[in-house]
Design a protein that fits this description.
Helix content is about 85%, strand content about 0%. It is mainly alpha-helical. It has a single domain, classed as Up-down Bundle (Growth Hormone, Chain: A). The longest helix has about 45 residues. It is globular.
Amino acid sequence: TALNVSDESIHSDSTRNQHGSKSVRSFAVMWGGQAVSLFGSRLVRFAVIWWLTLATGSATVLATATIAFMLPQILAGPFAGSYVDRWNRKRVMMAADSLITVAVGVLAFLFYLGIQQIWHIYLIMLATSLMASFHWPAMQASTTLLVPEEHYSRVGGLNQSLQGAVNIIAPPVGAVLYALFPIESILLIDIVTAFIAVASVGLIYIPQPEDQPDSKDQSPLSDMAEGIRFLRGWPGALLLIAFAMILNLIATPAFSLLPLLATNHFAGDATTLAIMQSANAFGMVAGGAIMAMWGGSKNRTRTAMSALVIQGIALFLIGLVPGGLYELAVILLLIAGLTSPIFNGSVIAVMQATIPPKMQGRVFSLILSGASAMSPIGLAVAGPVADAFGVPIWFVVSGLVTAILSTAAFFVPAIMHLERREEESTEIEHETEELDESQITNQMHEQISTNNDVSDKSEVENDL
């Protein structure tokens, strides 16, 4: 196909540079396409969640929708990561985005016919989430191969700024479009933006890591087991996953219930929700810009946990804001958003620098699945609790737990020195290189010695 010809021609050009220099330009093209696609997805997500809010007014329904979106990433994530490490990562991203457009197109058709049901939305969320479980590790692993290591933290900040910028623009635009057009028309926007993402990835060359797993050598289960062994040798990562599991159990439901906080507690409408989400997004843009320019401190984990303590305090205070002080909640959401890119950017940078490129697909997926494993349980509990006692109580509890756990992390050496695995990996690589050089030298000496022996023997035979 034309895409394959383009791949080969670009690959030929790239091989002129020995060892394959990382292409920031290719990353920029990929990043731009994903930015457009992310905007379309956020726009549609706002419209669908608002439709569910108006149609049901139920915290349980919103929580169930979030569970439907998270379950495939938790259950299929580890296997998806193994396949990402085996397959061409560029094709994985293109296929995932293409299949997401099909799923969204089906939902748009159901709305057009007027036969949509709540369970239809759950099913489509399951399908799109399954594709996302392949797309996310492929994107993260590709970034590692395209961007120099010293820029990992900055790229993390840039990605978080993108998330924030999209969340600023998408909610108000979604609110306006929801008032002007039927929801099936809004869903079509996601289809168009996803095609743009597919095209942008198709235009670039994404290198594959060296020593990529051979599908004939071992099974995906063996690949996953190898990823688990890698994590078992990294105590700090295991503790961080356990830490994230507890936080996601408590904190994830809080943000999924934000639409009901806007309508029930603050007596607002779609505009109220859009302003609250946009405030949180403004904070994400600011935090991402800080990370992009600063790059984080030398101890990235300390930076991450400091940000999380502040976020916990902000969430705790949101739960205490009276219904008449909506503006204060907006300010606190902005502060909470500010801390997210600093935490996420710092942690992801450690992961990208520490995990070998050939293993990043499966290890990233294992970390994501492990960290998110408790979220569905939290959502299942949060829905009925919020219906019975109100949404603010969940913000109080989640904020308090987040602040306490983040503070406690400062006293856990394995978490505070999470980057030690990175240093150990680097030392091992250097030792391996030195060992290889030593082995080559020894082999050369042995070969010379052998040649000399043969030569001496030949001379003796000639004399005889």
